[in-house]
Specification:
Length: about 170
């Protein structure tokens, strides 16, 4: 195995789950997310000679974003769709009863639906910060936006999420 491929596998492949997570939230569909991540990984491998540094996560996620926006432009898709269920929740030993699990699953669906309604620029910073645990600097690098913009988008995303989530609670 050549050195370039080994370096790519060492630096980029550990972030494959983060890439899929971001693509799924941006595209709102697991099938589309798989296509986006596949295209992003191909682009990343082709452009890897130009990568400098050791933190490949922001670099890879920037490529994922670009692939998503390219695919979205091609499809001209502007409708909001809730994310599909993430699968059945198993009953842990000694854990909550089935009713408690059902309530938790319903709350998670409501939260996912509220996140899915956020505009893309707010949704992506929320996902990168809260689910991928990226720093403001890393998010700024991945999105090519100033840190101040990231901070304001995150604050707005949280406020909209709170409004959307609590609004559905009272309905």
């Amino acid at each position: 195995m050549d050195e370039r491929r080994q370096r790519f596998e060492r630096l980029v492949l550990p972030h494959l789950d983060a890439a899929h997570n971001l693509a799924r939230w941006l595209s709102r569909a697991s099938v589309d997310a798989e296509d986006i991540v596949q295209e992003a990984m191909l682009r990343a491998y082709r452009a890897f000679d130009g990568f400098r540094g050791e933190d490949a996560k922001p670099w890879l996620l920037a490529i994922v974003r670009n692939c998503h926006f390219t695919a979205a432009d091609k499809k001209k898709r502007h409708r909001s769709e809730p994310l599909p269920d993430q699968g059945a929740t198993e009953l842990p030993a000694g854990g909550p009863d089935p009713e408690g699990i059902a309530i938790g699953a319903a709350e998670m669906r409501r939260l996912n639906e509220a996140i899915a309604t956020l505009p893309t620029e707010f949704r992506e910073v929320l996902i990168l910060r809260e689910m991928e645990d990226m720093s403001y600097r890393e998010i700024a690098a991945a999105t090519s936006a100033p840190i101040g913009t990231i901070m304001s988008r995150l604050a707005r995303a949280r406020a909209l999420l709170r409004q959307n989530y609590l609004g559905k609670e009272s309905a």
